[in-house]
Amino acid sequence: MARARSREEKLFGAAVLRRSLELRGDEHRTALQPVYDGVLRDLGLSDDEVSAYLAEHRARVDEAIGRGKA
User: Fold this and answer.
1) d(Cα 2, Cα 24) in Å, to the nearest integer?
2) Distances 70 to 12, 21, 65, 67 between C-alpha atoms, Å
3) In this predicted model, what pLDDT tens digit does every residue of 14-54 receive, in sequence order?
4) Which residue in 61, 70, 68 sits closest to 22, CA to CA?
5) Which end of the chain, C or N, has fewer beta carbons within 10 A?
6) Spatial distance between the Cα atoms of 7 and 2, rounded to a whole number of angstroms
7) Are 57 and 22 in contact (CB under 8 A)?
8) What is the sign of the dihedral through the CA atoms of 40, 43, 46 and 18?
9) pLDDT value for 69
């Protein structure tokens, strides 16, 4: 059985997904919104929580998706 993820890990993963969708533009974001909503539901998180996490950790999240400083 897989180990349970910490709240920090869940927030980080959701923030990576959200930021990736933001960078893809409105068409992709709209099409994939149900996926994002389902991920949040499964992780027990709200979009407000992910937004707050992203505001505080944007550099780390951008680095994880390949947009950070090289």
Assistant:
1) 31
2) 20, 22, 12, 8
3) 999 999 998 888 888 889 999 999 999 999 999 999 999 99
4) 61
5) N
6) 15
7) no
8) negative
9) 59
